Fold this protein.
Amino acid sequence: MPPLRWFGADDVRAAMPPIEERLRLAEVTMTALARPGAAQLPPKIAIHPRPAASFVHAMPAHLRPDDAAGDLVGMKWVAGYATNAELGLPAISAVVVLNDAATGVPTAMLDGGPITAERTAAVSGLAIRRFGPAPRPGLEVALIGAGVQGHSHLPVLAHVLPGLRLRLFDQTPGRAEALAGVARETHGVADVRVAGGAREAVDGAKVVVTAASFGPKDAAQSMTNDWLEPDVTVVPIDYATYLNAAVARDAALFLVDQREQYLYNRETGNFDDYPDPQATIGEAILAGTSRPSGRVVVTHLGVGLADLVFADAIVRAALAAGRGAVLQR
């Protein structure tokens, strides 16, 4: 039997690939989902425990490239508890399991928290690089949400849009101020300002990323067309928490990470009045789709295949560095 290894959060962070490699891994994931037979990814299997707005998802996935030696098999088990903030605990926790593709034997378990944060930001960065504005000094960028995802998105935004002027908003002002402090020390960020509201943050922005916390909202889908520039690129990673369905319906280009998962979530009420996507991110990349004039919306819900692709790269780097604990079977 091969050894079974555990990689904790410190191991995962230490072995996380640099940003440019993360963007490449995101593209590998998105394009594999667009190629017939190159991946298997059923919709997330969900349960909803007692705390309000909580969820636990099972996310099995299989990468199936032409060469069987590159097969990946595994699953992410992720829990989201909005009530954890009251306990001083992370709202999102996860474990990623990798299986030997030839035998099915589990070979690695990883803390999925850092993977979730970085693979999500990498897909956003890929979407902005492919379907956003050309980088230029002084480009206005808005980031809604200053939690874990806000922190993971910050260096990626600075990498793909160097010289940006960042506008931040979070429902908790202290979190926004803390992230602003990090942004002021981040290479590629020319200027940062904390806005008093979401609408103020997105005013004049050419790129908007919404990364608000999940849970009940008093003003769901409040970000309407009149908030936004006519040529803005919007990347919502918080489902339909902020972005109004009319923005997606009226967009010149509306993409999702995986069609089946998006349509399943729309059927269950997470994307009321949203349209069918014109394509997936991977389909648009493979087709050579250029950014059209007008608004672009790229919604990604998070796919378990990305967690596997990142986990595989992290395990390789961690083993090379002598990290990870062998567990007794």
In short: The first helix runs from residue 9 to 15. The domain at 133-302 is CATH 3.40.50.720 (Rossmann fold).
